[in-house]
Amino acid sequence: MAAKKIEGGELSGLETPKVGPTGRPIRSFPVPEQLGTHGPARIIALCNQKGGVGKTTTTISLGATLAEYGRKVLVIDFDPQGALSAGLGINTHELTTIYDLLLGTVKDTRSAVVATHVPNLDLIPANIDLSAAEVHLVNEVAREQILSRVLRQVANDYDVILIDCQPSLGLLTINALTAAHGVLIPLECEFFALRGVALLVETVDKVRDRLNPSIKLDGILPTMYDSRTLHAREVLERVVEAFGDDVLDTVIGRTVKFPDASISGIPITSYAPEHPASEAYRQLARELISRGAVA
């Protein structure tokens, strides 16, 4: 074989791999095959004790893209603000909610499941009533495992269940972590958001030791990234240095299309299917499937 000619200090014919925002070479994740059968579900909790980091947007958009790829998806609104329900255009007035299931006033989990406008994507809604749940549950036996018992009834109906947690590390979030097989941490590329990630990872470790030995960290998802700002680039660099391969390759950029889609009550993949943000969430779905976090 003839030796490659050296030009300008580089081997001619060799391309330098393109590098993504995380500093790693950009990888292409394959489009997954459709599933022949469905269930049992892998449960993923989307957690961050800081608000406004993209948990709800990620739950909606990831759920919708997994549904696009033929997965049957159930999303759980586990935040008293009810943003997930509103973001999917569901009016929770007079609906059975996750609060009713937690308190046991409604026994049948399937009766709370609501079909969304997205094929293969269902929702268990929430509203402000959920804010009282921690007070009511604090004296219950095995109070950390109540959500696990609720979801057990529907686990075989779905391929993945996504839990949109409230921005706290209280009893509701502990319930979500106890029920989950994995945790996905959306992280805004901003300094104050970075400070709390170590505490959240420590909480996940405690839940693993005491309540749920099988839970694993599925990944840290950088969100609201703006490559034009030095601050965002530095924060992302520090996250990668601190958490290594736990940081996903997919990075979600900042765009006004997200609130526009939320106001419309549909996922961004339906509101603006060709937008780079939609493609970013499709890449996230493919990456999680490639990592084995989703079937």
From TrEMBL:
Matches recorded under InterPro entries: AAA_dom, DNA_Partitioning_ATPase, P-loop_NTPase
SUPFAM superfamilies in the record: P-loop containing nucleoside triphosphate hydrolases
Organism superkingdom: Bacteria
Region Disordered: start-end pairs: 1-27
Positions of the AAA domain: 42-216
Family assignment from sequence similarity: Belongs to the ParA family.
PANTHER family: COBYRINIC ACID AC-DIAMIDE SYNTHASE, P-LOOP CONTAINING NUCLEOSIDE TRIPHOSPHATE HYDROLASE
Known function: May play a role in septum formation.
Protein name: Chromosome partitioning protein
Organism: Glaciihabitans tibetensis
